[in-house]
Amino acid sequence: MCEPESFRHLEIPSGDGSAYCRKKVQTKFRLFADPSRIREEPASGRSHHHCRFLQYIGLKNPFHFPAEGVIYTEKIKTPERIAQMTDFYWIVEDFSPVEQQLLATVAEYYPDRLSQTGKKRIVLKKTKEPVLRTTFKKDRAVIEAGTPAAFARGLGSVLSGEKTQETVSFDSLGIMIDCSRNKVFTVDYLKRFLVRMALMGGNLAMLYTEDTYRLPGEPFFGYMRGGYSLAELQDLDRFAAGLGIELVGCIQTLGHLDQVLRHRCYEKARDTGGVLMTDAPETYELIDKMISFWSEALSSRRIHIGMDEAHDLGRGRFLDYHGYENGSDLFLRHLGKVNAVCTRHGLKPIIWSDMFFRLANPAQDYYAENLEISEAVRKKVPPEVRLCYWDYYHDNAAFYEKSIQRHRAFGSEPLVASGIWTWGNFWCSIGKTRETAVPCINACRQTGIRELFFTMWGDDGGFCLYDSALAALELCCGVAYGASPDNDALYSRRFRALCGEDYRLYEAAATLQLCSANCILWDDPLQGTVLLGCEYRKILPDYCKKLERLLTDLNRRPVLSGQLQTVRVLAALLLSKIRLRKALLAAYSRGDRDALRNLAEEVIPGILYRIGEFDELFRADWLETAKPFGLEVIQRRNAGLVARYRELRRVLLEFLDGTLPQIAELDASLEAAPAVRETGFTPDNIYSGSYWL
Fold this sequence. Notes:
Oligomer: single chain
Shape: globular
Structural class: alpha/beta
């Protein structure tokens, strides 16, 4: 409908009025629909928008015009009307169809902030300069941007109330989200995540799917893994395109295929447990199906075909059948064949670059300095293939700059992948992300890299509460657009507006990971292997103090989101577990039977209750964000933890009643402690469940 501005009267002309109304609507009034859709009412000849307008200003019969020259006076904007308006609105004619789609989608997710009946008009000023500016005037918000991604970020700034001047340094900026390590996100959750990423300025999203897509004619490909259907991916692709985001498939065509190759039907395509058999016809038949699927699923003509970390390439069944062959020759031959498959399906491949460097040194060290790849190897890389340099670990820009130049020696411009630290964590580590991603971003800007994305891996079970990654993504996108990494005030305001959460609280919640919360949680309560190592490093006292501060902060909040409720319960559980372990060893070593009985009868039941509470909250979050497949792995770990605490209680009671003369596990821990202190060696702990899912 059309809504009058601040004036209070309208002079009604004689005659039909349709043309007048259309002109008046376009010049003096806000139009909230496409004017091409105005239709004539056959009974009166009056336009539909004309009649809607007259109804709005108060004419009881919009099909009856007053006489010529009559002045109709009305108080147009009542307080009630203003209260119903959102903060911002847009006029359809001001924007291209793509921009309109972005605005409409954002309005759907932020209905209280943006609509077509708002208080301040959003205006886009297009520029050819690599800048983004947002300014505010009395009745409008102005976004000056030269790219769709910059406009989307500018819209995020407007919704945040931020007056900004930023720099556009990258053509592609975005994420790679892991949908293979247990957790396969629902399409609805991914859509919500993509909307927020778009408002942060991202325009690239890769879906890492080793076997979590439904390959036609391959019923055991991704069996019981929650794979995406063709229809789901096409739906997500259309949605992403409406936000100006390129959705790219990120798959595996060499290694990391353990979940596929464990099935007997793929035996002929298997070299080792997770690596495909080079040169086998069955391998390329399978790869052809993969590439064909993604060519149909997504509109992007790019595909990431993986091929990283194939450490044992050619050392399994290939060695048995064909004898030893140099790894570089095998890799390059396989790459050429997969590239040909991609070309046949109209796709341009991207690969992780590490195998070129690993195969050039016996330690298989991707980041070995002063390592040069021979010209003979570089020349064999097909020109259609783009390399992706991935590095989530270094904290100085100079290292990244040197590595980028080594990749450019291959003759093409690489993509760069930094990391948002979600893997092996219950809560994304903003601190670790800042340490490693910020120098990477700066190096990319300094060297002129145009495509940069941030991986969000789910190693070891995908148990991260992934909304926590949004805070780190806000930081990374802000730095990519030129903001200081220390400007927490900016990130806090934007994060509150776009995600509805407290940025500083999200950063504080990463306290969980200062001492590897997952390893402590699933550490065996009788054996205490992880806590033995933590005790040696003398980090537990400080860790416990920080957990206590986090709990105090969370407990005083009147309302917590589901994921923060999970953090609160987990922090309390970790504190209880650490304190129990310390008290258990102390009481056992001094023979304090009363203390041991108190642990068995009072403390352990309390921990069991907290495990149950954590398990319920974790399950609720998982089912809200992901498909049910994979949850069973985490539930097995939690159930195993419950069983082991029950065993600990039983062993303590048997020791106290004389059934057991000693507790062997506690004796072993006490005996190992001096060796740990002396040598610094701490044994690894592999807890229950599939470790690399």
